Fold each of these.
Amino acid sequence: MPVAPPVDAPFVYDPTDPATQRSPFALYERLREEAPLYRVEHPRFWVLSRFEDVFAAARDTATFSSAQGLTFEPGEIEKLGLAPTIVMMDPPDHTAFRRLVSRGFTPRRVAEIEGPVRAFVGERLDRLAAGESTDLVEGLVGPLPTFVVASYLGVPAEDRHRFDQWTNAIVAANAEGEMLGRALGAVTELYGYFTELIERRRREPADDMITDLLAADIDGSELTVEEVLGFCFVMVAGGNDTTTGLLGGAAVLLTEHLDQRQRLIDDPAAIPNAVEELLRLTSPVQGLCRTTTRDVTLHGETVPAGSRIHLLYGAANRDPREFGPTADTLDVARQIRRIMTFSSGPHFCLGAAAARLQARVALEELLARMPGFTVDESASVYAPGAFVRRHESLPFSPTGA
Ligand code: HEM
């Protein structure tokens, strides 16, 4: 469904247009410079694109609420009959829930997956080197996050194949926001599967996140099975295509900027800093909506209470007001103070450390084993969807031949 701006808009910004999704950055510049508060008529929503505006709105959850949903139109979760998940809660409910689930995201858990992640990446790179796949999404950056989410949740190895299939169906439908209903079969099967897994973990606790979530107890409040289920769903829907977007986008940037790549080959210790810069430029979650709880005046205009407002993290991350005149270019040595890639404030991504780990390990291994790799952006295909920008396929050559 294409969106329509008002007749007096200075230009058309349509986040549902596939051409915009593929290449949104020139429009982001126009939004920041010419229409920092942009209005879309159909469906009615507003757009914020400057760093300071997006940063402030994300942190002000009393004014910019998540409780009506994060897409352009209300009701996406209700249509599925699911309870609101953590991303669709406001404080104080969100605060209490987040305190409980944070127990599953310990630094130890991140540290422990480094070895398995490195082994997984190595094995996938061996297969790419052998020519078993010529696509980076299929060969590495699609399966890697699925492996990590499954490891976090403690999905046993023998169930991974089924889990991967549900994940792929949910990720594909989720990209289109309002089309999640298409994956209803997969969602139902996944919920059924996790209901059983939760029962099993009650009987046989293991060293995994579901066990941690079941044991979480703060001041006598604990999570219900429905809440654990909803949280597993957020992990699947939020932890996969985002990381695919980061890793695919990183491969494109390092193919386009060989001088920057060389710096990382010469000095792998620079990779963690480069990951921050790649997170900034790729910004896999390009934007999400909030709903205003009161009239808000911004840039001389008043957004009425109850309006949808799109926080464009991807535009904020390239704002020269925050990142200087080179904001649009890759500089692996850039010192970054703040980025919006994982949002900011109460909803700051709980998987940020896991995403950074995957990017660091994938780049370390890829650059050490295949320093001459290339990807072909011109032949790539982007997944549809206004919210997460990621490749569906990205042709890959281990040697650049
Ligand atoms: C590069 C990869 C990733 C990106 C760009 C990303 C981005 C985000 C963003 C922008 C939010 C805030 C949503 C909002 O503004 O309403 C968020 C929340 C969240 N993310 Fe991530 N994410 C990534 C990876 C992951 C991974 C790997 C996991 C799980 C292992 C994860 C789990 C979550 C959870 C549970 C939340 C909800 C936090 C809350 O609402 O309090 N994410 N993520």
Note: The chain has one domain: 18-397.
Amino acid sequence: MNPVALRSEFPLLRRYENGKRLCYVDSAATSQKPQVVLDAVRRYYVEDNANVHRGVYDLAARATQDYEDARAEVAGLVHAEPEEIVFTRGTTESLNLLALSYGGQALGPGTNVVTSPAEHHSNLLPWQQVALRRGAELRFVELDEAGQVTPDAVAAVVDGGTRVVALAHVSNVMGTVTDVGAIAAIAHRAGAILAVDGAQSVPHMPMDVRQLGIDFLAFSGHKMCGPTGIGALYGRRELLAGMSPVYYGGEMIEEVTLTSATFKEAPWRFEGGTPNIAGAVGMGAAARFLQEVGLSEIHRHETELANAAADGLRRIEGVTVYGPEGHRESGVVTFNIDGVHAHDVATALDQHGVCVRAGHHCCQPLMRRLGAASTARASFYLYNDAEDVRQLLAAVQATKEFFRRVAG
Ligand SMILES: Cc1ncc(COP(=O)(O)O)c(C=O)c1O
């Protein structure tokens, strides 16, 4: 993998910000888009645009083919079958759909959902709310010292009443990687299913839902070099087949009378209304692009950069780095400059051309546990290189010195 050559495939990264080389290290928030994805979306609109699954003319058939080809590409990325991929607006919608449909059917008094205090709000609130409505219990796994969810901690809270274990594969704050394969086995032994929030893993590492035993997997197009407003929910075929739709309307029906309706098979019964066809085409192109670059290579490359950044940040006196002490297994590095609000850090880093995320990262319960109202987060991806690490470290050093001087 050649990150310099790769970088040139992303038009936005050729830009310079504040007179500086653009150091974009906020890919956990959203990724930049390569030319092949931009071209695929444009080509769809210029050559094939029509509504899907309805028209009987050639143009409409091509649009439907593009949309279904994209489903197959996305399925291939996670080693699923195309019929096991529901297109959604993103991870948030995927998890809501899952909680409302599967959770709505499986949960009730005497049952429980097991999750962790480290979840993104998108994987907490849907389960919290459906559990409240259905009279089910929401149980939390105890995190270890490093903020990690371990299989042992999951086994300690799962019991015969557990219907769903819902966990992130990679934490968007700590960058920790959860052993979802071992946890799937624990969930299945208890008769529960494992739902994985893959927002921070699918774009960054090889993913095989069959091998890992994952029952549901949610992910977003925009975090994997694809467009915004598109994502996917993978569901094991037998499970999707037993689930009721959540959105009712056009596209998803077989037959409708004034008082009743029958619905298409999965995944189409979950895709009521005109879908984001161009978004799906872009997500399909992104899935192909990532596989061509190689997910193992991407993972190796970005973890190398994240480890170099974490080591460098730890060497700057007055900087606190969160997450694993030892080797990092993801591209996420969260930190604070002591005595400086993370928003001020991010604004100051911007003056050096460095884009990082700052805030609570949609993980308020975890932030309370860390004892930090907010943190700054650098997250690396395939288009970053050693120069990005150098630029980040120099900017953090300069920012720290600036605030020391201002504080006098
Ligand atoms: C771990 C995790 N889960 C869920 C989400 C929500 O993703 P989206 O906003 O694309 O729905 C994010 C986004 O930052 C995330 O990092």
Note: The chain has two domains: 3-30+294-407, 37-292.
